[in-house]
Design brief:
With about 160 residues, the protein is an alpha/beta fold. The chain has three helices and seven strands, in the order E-E-H-E-E-E-H-E-H-E.
Length: about 160
């Protein structure tokens, strides 16, 4: 079960022309929350100081640096991060190898693109730390990654 949070802009005349960005955090076990509430999401946490993150609760403000004005955002928690877990008789370690991780994320993206009718949208992959390795694995010419990704922005 892969958990995600998506922000899709209202009022788009043809969503097939609007970019969609899949956003992954690093690992191990690190959810997309930090990219969501710290960098790319429509709101962000205000931390008091770079040296000291202070004590909660943090203020939440509009994120003027979000890219939601130019792309829809899908924050993805791979299996074993955030609220994503293996289900049924499957074990987490079935998803924790480089190829296994890429395979499950490619399957998630294919389902998301189909459910939201966004196969014709320009697609972007954004990540930090291990998220950049995920992006590299997703770009390998393997049978489980049939995505057209014309522009890639790993951080």
């Amino acid at each position: 079960s892969i958990f995600s949070t998506a922000y899709i802009a209202d009022g788009t005349t043809d969503p097939r022309n609007r970019p969609v960005a899949f956003v992954f955090n690093g690992g191990p076990g690190s959810a997309s929350l930090w990219l969501h509430m710290g960098v790319f999401g429509p709101q962000r946490l205000v931390l008091p100081d770079v040296q000291d993150d202070g004590a909660a609760p943090y203020d939440v403000v509009e994120n003027v640096y979000s890219i939601l004005d130019v792309a829809d955002l899908v924050f993805v928690d791979p299996v074993g991060t955030g609220w994503s877990r293996s289900l049924g008789e499957h074990e987490g370690n079935e998803f924790w190898g480089v190829n296994e991780d890429a395979e499950s994320l490619a399957a998630f993206m294919r389902m998301w693109l189909s459910e939201h009718q966004r196969w014709n949208s320009p697609k972007f992959l954004l990540g930090e730390s291990y998220g950049t390795l995920r992006i590299g694995a997703l770009l390998q010419p393997v049978p489980y990654t049939p995505l057209t990704l014309p522009t890639i922005y790993p951080s």
